[in-house]
Amino acid sequence: MSAPGSTRLYALDALRGLAVFLMMEQHLGIWLWRIPAGGAKRFPGLVAFNALGGMAAPLFISLAGVGGALMLERAGAGSPAQDRVLARRGLALIGFGYALNLMTPRWLGPLSWFVLHLIGFGLLTLPLWRRLASSRLLALAGALVVATPLAHAWLGTPLRLGFNRMADHSRPGGALRLALVEGHFPIIPWLALFLVGVVVGRWISAGQRGRVARLAGGLVIAGALLGAVRALTRADALPLYDWIPRPVGLRAFYVALDFYPAHPPILALLSGLALGLIYLATGPRVAGRFHRRHPLVTLGRASLTLLIVHVVLFNGGAHALELYLGLSARVTLLIIGVWTALCLLLVRRWERAGFRYGAEWLLRRLAG
What we know:
By secondary structure, this protein is mainly α. It has a domain at 37-290. It has 18 helices and no strands. The protein has helices at residues 10-32, 39-42, 44-51, 56-75, 80-103, 115-129, 134-155, 163-166, 174-182, 187-205, 209-234, 246-252, 264-281, 284-287, 295-301, 303-320, 329-350, 359-367. Mean pLDDT is 92; it is low at 1-6.
């Protein structure tokens, strides 16, 4: 890894590589495995392995904020040219997101708001956020989280969202409703992770990694405390609904291991864990192990390409070949292993060509 302020932080690429692996193993497990009756009890290891994939999106979003902040630091404060590059990259990523929607109609709707859209929106608006002090960015991130149960209560958003609902743009508000509140990764609250990432990027650039650790720990504790409020309320040990309207309180402290939608407890926990990984990876002892040819680094530098390719290949392909939810646990694990090994081999060779003609290359050509 390079030192802060130099050309590239390979530790962040390595974390993107980890996120790529977690994303792919979870998606392949969900799409291919024919879960038998009592699957969680019969295959606890596979279920836990699959659940680890839930860290992928929080990592991607947090790292996008960190990377955007570091890009601005390298360009110098108030660079209009860099602002234009960020805005173009944001628009291009949103375009990639909608293209992916159209390529995977069995998974996403044409106007679904997925992780690419959210990261694209973050980069598009980063020229606005960079003008705010870090304390104000953190306050804005907190406000987005607080607004989440309020928005859900107002719209009557279910406590658990299915994929059909997250792709349904026929409800009042249409695509804007999906982008703001009820999509896969809506702006409320997921932009909070991007904004926190921007602050963390500033701290890393300034050599203040200790602040990252403290924020990570605080978020994990906050997530646990929010979950404890829910537990105490269910046990009638805390009269929560005497203080907060039930539709709001139920959503503010609801505990679920997934994030469709993302309620404050799981959001705080996942954000804290993502920041903890960033803190660990950027430490001198760990960071020094990463270099341009490291397997995780090359995987991370091809993250956009691999996201698009694996979704089209395995979601679209599984449906076309009638293999969707049709394979045993053993075969599914074998496919995950072979696909991961193939990706590691190919991107390592592709790195020598500068990832030419990939999605990242195209993004740079389109946006600078």
